[in-house]
């Protein structure tokens, strides 16, 4: 199979979807991998690194996209890339369709592209392996960001995250006990902060408490959320509703009641944000003040940790890429249910019921389309 890798074009995105070691494995398995020139520079992987791994370098994204039957990306593909894709090609990316531009979705259907959303690939236990790899890094990053934003010169409350003898530490409130929230809790506890974690899933809270002693936990009903947010020095929004827009768990009224110089870091902004006063920012201009509360809401948060994130994503992707390269995309869907759960579109049809409901379009079950394809070949 011809696999394509292009440079990420979103501003300040230093990540790349495939690393040279993963490319080497794919090439040794009989695949041809085409890499756009300088695709890995942001993550400190040179073209020579890819050449030594067996890849072929192309000098334009168009050359890569036109050749590839499987295009692997991180951010949602651009309109130009989709126009260049061969009809029926497969494109793996973090689409975040609940907040994506509808024209991208329509172009996927028009070009009969098989779109697999890496954020919704899910195993039988409900775990999302590729998203988890990114979320672990994002969770750790939030605590580093909080420590910096709490400084007086950053507009924060001038509080040392971990405190000091006779000086109390910052109070960090984390909304969500999933992968992001758990990683943030571990990092914040290790830094010496006072940590409270809220979730509506008590089993998640129980597991987190077992592995992270020293935190406080609570059920995330609106009254408890309001009380916690009002007392917090830092609020980390780590709420996830896979495949759907994130609800506003923290309302404008709650933010209005926060202390001056308090911090909001809304990791859920990729799916619309869980804080009502959040709006997307950028890595170059990551923060803004709302009613004296400092907000950080960068959708591509891990793009600023280019090398670590690239390694994590590529390693998580490898089993799926192996399956697709051996069996083709339809064969891989049949053999790997977790990959099939990540499909948004296939053969010009929406195959994701939640997305179809959001945009009021017809949809069909992927299994039906695969069965029809088998019948036609027979």
> Element order, helices and strands?
EHEHEHEHEHEHEHEHEHEHEEEHHEEHH
Q: What is the CATH C-level name of the largest domain?
A: Alpha Beta
Measured as a percent range, the helix fraction is: 25-40%
Q: Taking strands numbered 1, 2, ... along the chain, how are they ordered across the largest sheet? A: 3-2-1-4-5-6-14-15
Q: Identify the quaternary structure here.
A: single chain
What is the count of distinct domains?
2
Architecture overview:
This protein is α/β, with parallel strands linked by helices and 378 residues long. The protein has helices spanning 20-28, 47-52, 61-67, 79-84, 102-110, 129-149, 179-190, 202-211, 222-231, 252-256, 306-335, 337-340, 353-359, 366-377, and strands at 2-5, 32-36, 56-58, 70-72, 90-93, 114-117, 171-175, 194-199, 216-219, 234-237, 263-266, 287-290, 293-296, 343-346, 349-350. The protein folds into two domains: 2-117 and 305-377, NAD(P)-binding Rossmann-like Domain (Rossmann fold, 3-Layer(aba) Sandwich), CATH 3.40.50; 135-304, Rossmann fold. The protein has 14 helices and 15 strands. The protein has an eight-stranded mixed β-sheet with strand order 3-2-1-4-5-6-14-15, with helices on both faces. A seven-stranded mixed β-sheet has the order 9-8-7-10-11-13-12, with helices on both faces. Strand 5 (90-93), helix 5 (102-110) and strand 6 (114-117) form a beta-alpha-beta unit. Helix 6 runs antiparallel to helix 11. The chain is globular, with a radius of gyration of 22 Å.
């Amino acid at each position: 199979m011809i696999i394509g890798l292009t440079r990420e074009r979103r501003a300040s995105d230093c990540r790349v979807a495939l690393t040279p070691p993963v490319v080497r494995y794919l090439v040794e398995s009989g695949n041809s991998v085409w890499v756009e020139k300088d695709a890995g520079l942001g993550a400190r992987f040179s073209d020579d690194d890819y050449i030594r791994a067996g890849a072929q370098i192309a000098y334009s994204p168009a050359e890569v996209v036109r050749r590839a039957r499987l295009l692997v990306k991180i951010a949602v593909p651009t309109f130009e890339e989709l126009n260049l894709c061969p009809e029926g090609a497969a494109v793996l990316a973090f689409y975040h369709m609940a907040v994506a531009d509808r024209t991208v979705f329509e172009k996927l259907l028009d070009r009969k592209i098989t779109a697999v959303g890496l954020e919704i690939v899910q195993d039988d236990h409900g775990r999302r392996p590729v998203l988890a790899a990114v979320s672990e890094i994002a969770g750790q990053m939030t605590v580093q960001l909080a420590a910096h934003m709490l400084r007086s010169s950053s507009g924060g409350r001038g509080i040392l995250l971990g405190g000091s003898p006779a000086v109390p530490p910052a109070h960090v409130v984390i909304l969500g006990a999933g992968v992001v929230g758990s990683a943030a809790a571990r990092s914040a506890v290790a830094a010496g902060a006072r940590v409270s974690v809220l979730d509506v899933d008590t089993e998640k809270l129980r597991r987190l408490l077992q592995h992270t002693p020293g935190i406080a936990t609570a059920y995330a009903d609106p009254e408890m959320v309001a009380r916690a947010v009002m007392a917090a020095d830092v609020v980390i929004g780590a709420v996830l509703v896979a495949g759907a827009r994130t609800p506003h768990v923290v309302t404008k009224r709650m933010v209005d009641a926060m202390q001056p110089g308090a911090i909001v870091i809304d990791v859920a902004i990729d799916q619309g944000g869980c804080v009502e006063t959040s709006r997307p920012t950028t890595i170059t201009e990551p923060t803004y003040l709302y009613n004296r509360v400092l907000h950080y809401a960068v959708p591509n948060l891990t793009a600023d940790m280019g090398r670590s994130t690239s390694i994590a994503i590529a390693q998580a992707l490898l089993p799926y890429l192996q399956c697709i390269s051996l069996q083709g995309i339809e064969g891989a869907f049949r053999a790997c249910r977790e990959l099939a759960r990540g499909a948004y579109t296939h053969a010009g049809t929406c195959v994701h019921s939640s997305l179809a409901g959001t945009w009021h379009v017809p949809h069909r079950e992927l299994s039906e389309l695969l069965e029809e394809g088998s019948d036609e070949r027979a």
